[in-house]
Amino acid sequence: MDDIYEVYALRYADRPGRTRSDSFLFDPEHASPHDIDYFLWVVRNEARTIVVDTGYDAAEGERRDRAIFAEPASCLLDFGVDPQSVETVVITHLHYDHAGSLYRFPAATFHLQADEMAYATGPCMAHAALNHPFSAEHVCEMVRKVFSGRVVFHDGDAEIAPGVEVAKIGGHTRGLQAVRVKTRLGWLLLASDASHFYENYLGGKIFPIVVESDVMLEGFKRLPTLASAPSLVIPGHDPQVCRFFPRIAGTAEGAATYRLDVEPHADLAALMARY
Fold this sequence. Notes:
about 280 residues; alpha/beta; five-stranded mixed beta sheet; globular
Protein backbone atom coordinates (compact mmCIF):
# COMPACT_ATOMS: atom_id res chain seq x y z
CA MET A 1 0.00 0.00 0.00
CA ASP A 2 1.37 3.42 -0.93
CA ASP A 3 -0.06 5.13 2.19
CA ILE A 4 1.71 3.00 4.83
CA TYR A 5 5.26 3.99 5.77
CA GLU A 6 8.34 3.10 7.70
CA VAL A 7 9.70 5.94 9.84
CA TYR A 8 13.31 6.45 10.94
CA ALA A 9 15.11 8.93 13.18
CA LEU A 10 18.66 9.79 12.12
CA ARG A 11 20.69 11.22 15.00
CA TYR A 12 23.50 13.43 13.76
CA ALA A 13 24.51 15.40 16.88
CA ASP A 14 24.09 15.79 20.60
CA ARG A 15 24.89 18.50 23.13
CA PRO A 16 26.00 17.54 26.61
CA GLY A 17 26.56 20.10 29.32
CA ARG A 18 23.02 21.46 29.30
CA THR A 19 20.84 21.72 32.42
CA ARG A 20 17.13 21.35 33.00
CA SER A 21 16.79 25.13 32.94
CA ASP A 22 17.59 24.90 29.21
CA SER A 23 14.64 22.53 28.69
CA PHE A 24 11.89 23.52 31.13
CA LEU A 25 10.74 26.86 32.47
CA PHE A 26 10.34 27.15 36.25
CA ASP A 27 11.85 23.72 36.88
CA PRO A 28 12.66 23.07 40.56
CA GLU A 29 15.73 21.04 39.56
CA HIS A 30 16.94 23.72 37.16
CA ALA A 31 20.65 23.00 37.70
CA SER A 32 20.47 19.25 37.06
CA PRO A 33 22.12 17.96 33.85
CA HIS A 34 19.84 17.55 30.84
CA ASP A 35 21.38 16.58 27.50
CA ILE A 36 19.78 16.90 24.08
CA ASP A 37 19.99 14.96 20.81
CA TYR A 38 19.51 16.26 17.26
CA PHE A 39 17.64 14.33 14.58
CA LEU A 40 16.28 14.44 11.10
CA TRP A 41 13.68 11.91 9.98
CA VAL A 42 13.01 9.71 6.97
CA VAL A 43 9.52 8.57 5.99
CA ARG A 44 9.50 5.98 3.23
CA ASN A 45 7.71 3.18 1.42
CA GLU A 46 8.04 1.65 -2.02
CA ALA A 47 6.27 4.60 -3.63
CA ARG A 48 8.14 7.55 -2.09
CA THR A 49 10.75 8.84 0.32
CA ILE A 50 10.11 12.00 2.33
CA VAL A 51 12.72 13.74 4.47
CA VAL A 52 11.55 15.70 7.50
CA ASP A 53 13.94 18.54 8.39
CA THR A 54 17.51 18.87 7.20
CA GLY A 55 19.60 19.41 10.34
CA TYR A 56 22.60 21.69 10.63
CA ASP A 57 25.96 21.14 9.01
CA ALA A 58 29.50 21.35 10.36
CA ALA A 59 29.92 24.99 9.33
CA GLU A 60 26.85 26.03 11.32
CA GLY A 61 28.01 23.89 14.21
CA GLU A 62 31.36 25.69 14.21
CA ARG A 63 29.65 29.10 14.21
CA ARG A 64 27.62 28.07 17.25
CA ASP A 65 30.32 25.95 18.91
CA ARG A 66 28.09 22.89 18.61
CA ALA A 67 29.83 19.91 17.07
CA ILE A 68 28.10 17.22 15.06
CA PHE A 69 28.77 13.50 14.77
CA ALA A 70 28.26 13.57 11.01
CA GLU A 71 26.82 15.84 8.33
CA PRO A 72 23.05 15.25 8.01
CA ALA A 73 23.51 14.68 4.28
CA SER A 74 26.12 11.99 5.03
CA CYS A 75 23.74 10.33 7.49
CA LEU A 76 21.14 10.15 4.73
CA LEU A 77 23.64 8.73 2.26
CA ASP A 78 24.74 6.09 4.76
CA PHE A 79 21.06 5.18 5.14
CA GLY A 80 20.70 4.78 1.38
CA VAL A 81 18.93 8.07 0.69
CA ASP A 82 20.68 10.44 -1.74
CA PRO A 83 19.79 14.04 -0.79
CA GLN A 84 20.43 15.07 -4.39
CA SER A 85 17.49 12.89 -5.48
CA VAL A 86 15.00 13.59 -2.70
CA GLU A 87 11.87 15.18 -4.13
CA THR A 88 9.92 16.06 -0.96
CA VAL A 89 11.21 17.71 2.22
CA VAL A 90 9.02 18.88 5.08
CA ILE A 91 10.51 21.66 7.18
CA THR A 92 8.84 21.69 10.58
CA HIS A 93 10.22 25.17 11.33
CA LEU A 94 13.13 27.36 10.31
CA HIS A 95 15.41 27.14 13.35
CA TYR A 96 19.04 26.47 12.47
CA ASP A 97 18.98 22.83 13.63
CA HIS A 98 15.96 21.96 11.47
CA ALA A 99 16.49 24.00 8.32
CA GLY A 100 20.21 24.00 7.68
CA SER A 101 21.71 22.02 4.79
CA LEU A 102 18.88 23.09 2.47
CA TYR A 103 21.42 23.40 -0.34
CA ARG A 104 21.98 19.63 -0.17
CA PHE A 105 18.52 19.01 -1.69
CA PRO A 106 18.61 20.52 -5.20
CA ALA A 107 15.68 18.47 -6.55
CA ALA A 108 13.33 18.86 -3.59
CA THR A 109 10.10 20.71 -3.10
CA PHE A 110 9.91 22.06 0.45
CA HIS A 111 6.72 22.13 2.54
CA LEU A 112 6.48 24.96 5.08
CA GLN A 113 3.80 26.84 6.97
CA ALA A 114 3.18 30.32 5.52
CA ASP A 115 3.19 31.73 9.05
CA GLU A 116 6.69 30.36 9.60
CA MET A 117 8.07 32.16 6.57
CA ALA A 118 6.35 35.39 7.63
CA TYR A 119 7.68 35.02 11.17
CA ALA A 120 11.27 34.30 10.12
CA THR A 121 11.38 37.30 7.77
CA GLY A 122 9.26 39.76 9.75
CA PRO A 123 9.55 42.29 12.59
CA CYS A 124 10.15 39.64 15.26
CA MET A 125 13.57 38.99 13.81
CA ALA A 126 14.70 42.45 14.93
CA HIS A 127 14.83 41.06 18.49
CA ALA A 128 17.89 39.03 19.52
CA ALA A 129 15.80 37.07 22.02
CA LEU A 130 13.73 35.73 19.12
CA ASN A 131 16.19 35.56 16.23
CA HIS A 132 19.06 33.69 17.90
CA PRO A 133 17.77 30.17 16.99
CA PHE A 134 17.56 31.21 13.33
CA SER A 135 20.38 31.53 10.82
CA ALA A 136 19.97 34.39 8.36
CA GLU A 137 21.71 32.27 5.73
CA HIS A 138 19.22 29.43 6.14
CA VAL A 139 16.25 31.77 5.95
CA CYS A 140 17.67 33.49 2.86
CA GLU A 141 18.24 30.10 1.26
CA MET A 142 14.57 29.28 1.80
CA VAL A 143 13.61 32.63 0.28
CA ARG A 144 15.66 31.72 -2.78
CA LYS A 145 13.73 28.47 -3.03
CA VAL A 146 10.49 30.43 -2.84
CA PHE A 147 11.61 32.50 -5.82
CA SER A 148 12.57 29.36 -7.74
CA GLY A 149 9.10 27.90 -7.21
CA ARG A 150 10.20 25.08 -4.93
CA VAL A 151 8.27 25.88 -1.75
CA VAL A 152 4.71 24.77 -1.06
CA PHE A 153 3.14 26.89 1.66
CA HIS A 154 0.47 25.55 3.98
CA ASP A 155 -2.01 27.52 6.02
CA GLY A 156 -2.74 25.04 8.80
CA ASP A 157 -3.19 21.28 8.55
CA ALA A 158 -2.64 19.73 5.13
CA GLU A 159 -1.88 16.49 3.27
CA ILE A 160 1.63 16.14 1.84
CA ALA A 161 1.10 12.71 0.25
CA PRO A 162 -1.26 9.80 0.86
CA GLY A 163 -0.70 8.87 4.51
CA VAL A 164 1.50 11.89 5.32
CA GLU A 165 0.05 15.07 6.79
CA VAL A 166 1.26 18.21 8.51
CA ALA A 167 -0.46 19.69 11.55
CA LYS A 168 0.17 23.30 12.48
CA ILE A 169 0.99 23.54 16.20
CA GLY A 170 2.86 26.84 16.75
CA GLY A 171 4.08 27.97 20.16
CA HIS A 172 7.81 27.33 19.83
CA THR A 173 7.76 29.32 16.59
CA ARG A 174 4.81 30.99 14.90
CA GLY A 175 4.49 28.36 12.16
CA LEU A 176 5.83 25.18 13.76
CA GLN A 177 4.26 22.07 12.22
CA ALA A 178 4.31 18.43 13.28
CA VAL A 179 4.13 15.55 10.78
CA ARG A 180 1.58 12.74 10.93
CA VAL A 181 2.55 9.47 9.23
CA LYS A 182 0.37 6.43 8.69
CA THR A 183 2.25 3.27 9.72
CA ARG A 184 1.33 -0.36 10.25
CA LEU A 185 0.80 0.54 13.93
CA GLY A 186 -1.47 3.47 13.11
CA TRP A 187 -0.81 7.21 12.90
CA LEU A 188 2.63 8.18 14.20
CA LEU A 189 3.35 11.81 15.02
CA LEU A 190 6.77 13.37 14.52
CA ALA A 191 6.21 16.17 17.01
CA SER A 192 9.49 17.93 16.24
CA ASP A 193 9.79 20.92 18.56
CA ALA A 194 6.13 20.97 19.48
CA SER A 195 7.61 18.86 22.30
CA HIS A 196 11.38 18.72 22.52
CA PHE A 197 11.22 16.02 25.22
CA TYR A 198 8.56 13.60 26.38
CA GLU A 199 8.47 15.56 29.61
CA ASN A 200 7.43 18.79 27.87
CA TYR A 201 4.08 17.57 26.62
CA LEU A 202 3.42 14.88 29.22
CA GLY A 203 4.09 17.27 32.10
CA GLY A 204 2.87 20.47 30.48
CA LYS A 205 6.33 22.04 30.87
CA ILE A 206 7.11 25.01 28.66
CA PHE A 207 10.33 24.92 26.64
CA PRO A 208 12.21 28.21 27.22
CA ILE A 209 12.47 29.14 23.53
CA VAL A 210 8.84 30.09 22.98
CA VAL A 211 6.93 32.71 21.03
CA GLU A 212 3.46 32.04 22.46
CA SER A 213 3.33 30.11 25.73
CA ASP A 214 -0.42 29.55 25.63
CA VAL A 215 -0.21 28.14 22.11
CA MET A 216 2.61 25.81 23.15
CA LEU A 217 0.56 24.55 26.11
CA GLU A 218 -2.50 23.96 23.94
CA GLY A 219 -0.25 22.17 21.47
CA PHE A 220 0.87 19.78 24.22
CA LYS A 221 -2.78 18.78 24.63
CA ARG A 222 -3.28 18.31 20.91
CA LEU A 223 -0.27 16.11 20.21
CA PRO A 224 -1.70 12.82 21.57
CA THR A 225 -4.93 13.38 19.63
CA LEU A 226 -2.94 13.30 16.38
CA ALA A 227 -1.44 9.85 17.03
CA SER A 228 -3.16 6.48 17.25
CA ALA A 229 -1.48 5.69 20.58
CA PRO A 230 0.56 7.69 23.12
CA SER A 231 3.67 5.69 22.25
CA LEU A 232 3.43 6.98 18.68
CA VAL A 233 4.14 10.59 19.66
CA ILE A 234 7.86 11.15 18.96
CA PRO A 235 9.46 14.23 20.54
CA GLY A 236 11.98 16.24 18.59
CA HIS A 237 15.13 16.07 20.71
CA ASP A 238 14.77 13.54 23.51
CA PRO A 239 17.75 11.16 23.94
CA GLN A 240 15.29 8.65 25.37
CA VAL A 241 14.04 8.01 21.83
CA CYS A 242 17.35 6.20 21.36
CA ARG A 243 16.57 4.00 24.35
CA PHE A 244 12.94 3.28 23.56
CA PHE A 245 13.35 2.37 19.87
CA PRO A 246 15.73 -0.08 18.16
CA ARG A 247 18.99 1.15 16.69
CA ILE A 248 19.45 -0.33 13.23
CA ALA A 249 22.73 1.37 12.31
CA GLY A 250 25.48 3.41 13.92
CA THR A 251 26.58 3.50 17.52
CA ALA A 252 24.99 4.44 20.81
CA GLU A 253 27.65 7.15 21.28
CA GLY A 254 27.56 8.72 17.80
CA ALA A 255 25.61 9.03 14.58
CA ALA A 256 22.89 6.38 14.47
CA THR A 257 19.58 5.42 12.90
CA TYR A 258 16.54 4.31 14.89
CA ARG A 259 13.33 2.74 13.62
CA LEU A 260 10.18 4.33 15.02
CA ASP A 261 7.28 2.43 13.42
CA VAL A 262 7.73 -0.54 15.75
CA GLU A 263 6.65 -1.38 19.28
CA PRO A 264 8.83 0.61 21.70
CA HIS A 265 10.62 -0.70 24.76
CA ALA A 266 8.38 -1.22 27.78
CA ASP A 267 10.22 1.61 29.55
CA LEU A 268 8.25 4.09 27.45
CA ALA A 269 4.94 2.86 28.87
CA ALA A 270 6.45 3.13 32.33
CA LEU A 271 7.48 6.73 31.65
CA MET A 272 4.01 7.68 30.46
CA ALA A 273 2.39 6.00 33.45
CA ARG A 274 4.10 8.53 35.69
CA TYR A 275 2.03 11.37 34.24
